[in-house]
Specification:
With 184 residues, this protein is α+β, with helices and mostly antiparallel strands. The chain has 3 helices and 10 strands.
Length: 184
Amino acid sequence: MRILLLLTLSVLCIGCSISDKTFKPSLIKAEATLDDFKDYCAGSQGKWQGTVTSVISEKNVGQEGALLKYEWEARFAKGGRVMNQRVNGPNSSSEALVFYDAGAKKIQITYASSKGIVNRHSIHRDEDKWIRLTRQARPDGTITSFYSEIRNSEDGKIKTIDIYGKHENGEEWKQTNIWHRVEE
């Protein structure tokens, strides 16, 4: 019984580790449907460009304060149940698979970067935006978590991603990435 209680508390602590805004249990329990997956992918498909100023300040995530230009492309694989994404920046590149996990009832994305970073995203819809919960594993084994709100413009040509988290010292940070669709 004690072990079950400790495991339950551990899971709850992991789920609430960033701040009230980031990993509320209600966000972790939120679900997505296959139709949500199709809508999310339709809003991501194509080629995108953006200039990002990183405030995350981890040397493997970005250069704090540096303005960096990135491009990414998202395309469905044959069958329409998996989307491939490729991100290219000045110092690294990443590959990702986007899929609907029917068992978890979540849109899932797994990114692996040329710098050894692995991001696992879990996504669901929340009214006019998408909520993305991220677990990041860095090359040194450090694990961190982020919370993001993703919004697409009405015409589908601009994607705004607000990312929230905490530095190791507990100070909260926010980073906004704005992407422009250059090709569908």
